[in-house]
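Regression test case RT-17, inverse folding.

Input:
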């Protein structure tokens, strides 16, 4: 990419050491030009408008104006690419809903950074070949949508973060302040209450059938009448769950009248 104009990068983090680390990790790449640094969201907005960077490394939690507020303030302007850099994993889903390129969870090493940086370079090269308008329109639509249902979950395990499309979820069960998400006979523990997760899932695709379980509608194989107005819900993999009377109306509305 050395024959193309430099990639203009803005570093936004309220921790000086974090900005220094990013500078060091970018050091030596002939394709990058760091056009500025900001220690809070207000300064970041000023720098973005003055320097028009191609890419921002953006912290989430900062004094005065946070990272997501920065993006919301830019919704009607030319939107640079964003890589979030933060110590907090709970914002990852929201970050990808606004089409961030990546979500670097501190602490990360050079190898993890390089994966993110090379992805950004590839995207920017695509933009310079004519893909920019489509990306900006898509990002603006994401920002305006606001209350869209989750399209994927962020799973954290063994120090790694990976993503699970909601279409791959078979069913979910409550485990206190956690939920166990079942997918293709594997389970993933997520720090989320089942009620909170229920509110974020598309009710046309998922339904809560019990205080402790949610199922994907097209994964239901059979319903069997049980005792006291309850039903046994048989899933495609043979799992048997209980449809409680308190949640019968929700499933009836989703599937049609029950016998």
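Golden output:
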């Amino acid at each position: 990419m050395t024959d193309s104009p430099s990639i203009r990068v803005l570093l936004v983090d309220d921790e000086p050491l974090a900005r220094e680390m990013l500078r060091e990790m970018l050091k030596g790449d002939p394709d990058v030009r760091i056009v500025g640094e900001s220690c809070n969201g207000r300064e970041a907005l000023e720098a973005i408008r003055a320097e028009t960077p191609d890419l921002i490394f953006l912290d989430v939690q900062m004094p005065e104006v946070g990272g997501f507020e920065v993006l919301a303030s830019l919704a009607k302007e030319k939107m640079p690419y964003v890589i979030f850099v933060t110590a907090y994993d709970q914002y990852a889903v929201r970050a990808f809903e606004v089409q961030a390129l990546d979500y670097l969870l501190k602490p990360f090493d050079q190898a993890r950074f390089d994966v993110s940086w090379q992805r950004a370079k590839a995207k920017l090269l695509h933009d310079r070949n004519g893909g920019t308008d489509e990306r900006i329109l898509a990002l603006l639509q994401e920002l305006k949508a606001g209350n869209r249902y989750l399209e994927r979950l962020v799973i954290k395990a063994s120090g790694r973060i990976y993503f699970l499309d909601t279409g791959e979820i078979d069913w979910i069960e409550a485990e206190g302040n956690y939920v166990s998400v079942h997918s293709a006979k594997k389970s993933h523990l997520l720090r989320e209450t089942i009620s909170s997760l229920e509110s974020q899932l598309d009710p046309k695709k998922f339904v809560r059938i019990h205080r402790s379980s949610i199922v994907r509608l097209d994964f239901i194989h059979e319903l069997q009448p049980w005792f006291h107005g309850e039903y046994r819900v048989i899933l495609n993999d043979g799992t048997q769950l209980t449809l409680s009377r308190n949640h019968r109306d929700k499933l009836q509305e989703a599937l049609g009248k029950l016998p």
